[in-house]
Amino acid sequence: SIKVPKHYYNNDPTSFAFKTCQERWPVIVQNAVDDVTSELNKFNSKEAKEQGKIIVAQLKDLKQKLINDAKIEPFNEPNVPSLNSYDETLQKLPESEITWLTGPWLYLECYLYRLINLFFLKQSHWSDFDVFENLKRETFKSSTFGIYELAIQYREFKKQLDARKPNLDSLELLFREFVDICLWGNATDLSLLANATLEDIKSVQGAEARKKSEKNILANDLDQAWQQLLSIQKNDQKRVDFVLDNAGFENYTDLILSLFLLDTGMVNTVVFHCKTRPWMVSDTMIKDVHLLLSDLQNLEWFPEHRIDLDFLVSEISTHLKNGKIILKESEFWTLDLDYWNISPLETKYGGNLIHKELLHSDLVIIKGDLNYRKLTGDRQWDRSTPFTVAIDGLNKSGLKLFALRTCKADVCCGLPKGKNEELCEYWRSLGNEVGELWCSSGKWAVISYSDGNGA
Ligand code: F6P
Ligand code: MG
């Protein structure tokens, strides 16, 4: 049997955890301080202002604790079941004392966002305030170019689809293109988006553009996901799920892939799984999907290509209204627990319910970096370990899992033998001290599949 390696830890200078906890987390908390401070003045009630000041003080205190490497305390919130999970895990960790700058990365990162959220939950006027909402929307607003391009491309696609049903070969090409867009939608570097129209896709230029980003995809199981989609075509019910990652532009690409799947009849239902609270700064809550649609209709933000944008919004709204695109949320996604807990055996925190729910899906698309870390347990796997090994029991869970992930953290699996060494050397040759950190740069990606029928 395979030995499960240990987690990544914050005090490991060769891990991206190190820089994350020392540099990135204090900035994220400071940004929250600034956001609440400016938001304070918009409240009229004195009580609300006072409450806001309490939150600001708590956030400042948290920032100091981070910097000073304070000890992690249990939440002790018996009325919030999901926080009991955090306390149980904390107790079970092998170290007698866990601190911000030395403890396990994944656990502490989840803990950080829950703690921030708790500050808000405790203040009645602020309990459903999303401290990251301004940032999410500002970033979306500034993605104008990519947003226009995809809206134009989608309307063109739809026109051609209505004129003539595409054959299987062109459907497959389109699937590759839309998956590619959806994958790189997770990267901060939006320049990878090819501005191809439906016709271009078959042209040398479109193929070349795709080739260029293709070499940065280090493992690619897309064929298996395509075969899985083909195998269900005779069914009445054909359903794809998305375990979502970021709101804004990435979610926009999720919607575009969904439209492709629905319009071509490849599936008849798409389910989006959203977070119940602000999470990892940019993750998608149900209200963020609605905000995205209303923001797309903002003429000041997006004055051009109105025909294309309005068309897109109306298509999506119709699917939402008819229940073809369904928005769901669960507390499970903001637990500390990794996704090995998506199992009938996890009955305490809803892992069993998520498992049951996802069994109804013909393909579960799992987006982004954090979700990938939870799939693989955020453990120090040799990077040539097969994905189906690194996801532990999920490999025989019956779930068809399809991970689209740009690499922004250490854990990575499914690479050909020797590839990691090659990239480490390349990364050092660019003047970086730690070669392994190529994997946290967001420049590479993996597309991985598990059919759920055993490794
Ligand atoms: O360091 C990687 C990181 O910033 C983590 O904090 C988190 O796991 C992740 O990236 C967020 O990225 P994504 O939105 O792709 O999950
Ligand atoms: Mg995210």
UniProtKB/TrEMBL annotation:
Pfam families the record matches: ARMT1-like_dom (PF01937)
Annotated keywords: Hydrolase, Manganese, Metal-binding
GO biological process: DNA damage response
Highest taxon above the source species: Eukaryota
Official protein name in the record: Sugar phosphate phosphatase
Hydrolase as UniProt keyword: yes
Domain comment (free text): Subfamily III proteins have a conserved RTxK motif about 40-50 residues from the C-terminus; the threonine may be replaced by serine or cysteine.
Source species: Pachysolen tannophilus NRRL Y-2460
InterPro entries assigned: ARMT-1-like_metal-bd_sf, ARMT1, ARMT1-like_metal-bd
Single GO cellular component term: nucleus
